[in-house]
Write a structure and sequence with these properties.
Blueprint (H helix, E strand, L loop, with lengths): L6 E4 L5 H11 L7 H8 L9 E7 L6 E10 L2 E9 L8 H15 L4 E7 L3 H9 L3 E10 L4 E9 L4 H9 L14
Parallel strand pairs: 4-5
Antiparallel strand pairs: 1-2, 2-3, 3-4, 5-7, 6-7
């Protein structure tokens, strides 16, 4: 576990290659493609933006050590992906990335945030629960090609997102996150 003062910033097109390397390392069986990231980034800028993609950069090395993405439509947002390098698991970087996404969900005026997480990814599930996400169902065989089920979780954003983020940041358990991913 490395605790770092990674700098969060908006993901740009030149970040796709290092993010793809991290994707392949973390999720070799169901990694996103370059086209998927290009498609998401196409909706992340300008007055009609409906996406938020962020990277965490190690200021000492310039290395991308994490990333996350959110899609918004109407009053509903969906956490698309979160990934953190293994050497940064447990240091609070997943919490920082999720906090950024939830603040942007509020800025997009979303009332709910949904996500899917692998049923075997208990670390990520615990992180989401600390932020107030609750399980609402399953998607059978969602993650391919492994045919792994997804747990669907929801957060009602009627409460102040900063309060949820503060509760998570001050929790006793700092579980790392690898990905929620929607492919």
């Amino acid at each position: 576990m490395t605790s770092t003062t990674a700098v969060l910033r908006e993901m740009r097109w030149w970040d796709i290659a290092p993010v793809l390397e991290l994707e392949a390392e973390l999720f070799p069986d169901d990694a996103w493609s370059a086209g998927m990231f290009w498609s998401e980034l196409a909706y992340s800028r300008g007055p009609d933006a409906t996406r938020r993609y962020v990277v965490a950069e190690d200021p000492a090395t310039g290395r991308i050590v994490g990333y996350a993405g959110l899609a918004a439509s109407g009053d509903l947002a969906d956490v698309q992906t979160i990934g953190v390098t293994r050497d940064h698991w447990g240091g609070g970087l997943g919490s920082a990335l999720l906090t950024d996404l939830l603040k942007h969900a509020t800025a997009f005026e979303c009332a709910e945030v949904l996500l899917e997480v692998r049923v075997d990814n208990t670390r990520a599930q615990k992180l989401y629960e600390r932020f107030g996400f609750e399980p609402i169902g399953f998607r059978r065989g969602y993650y391919q090609p492994g045919n792994v089920d997804a747990l669907v979780m929801r957060l009602n954003v009627h409460e102040d997102v900063r309060d949820a983020a503060d509760r998570a940041a001050h929790g006793d358990v700092q579980e790392p996150v690898s990905e929620t991913g929607t492919d």
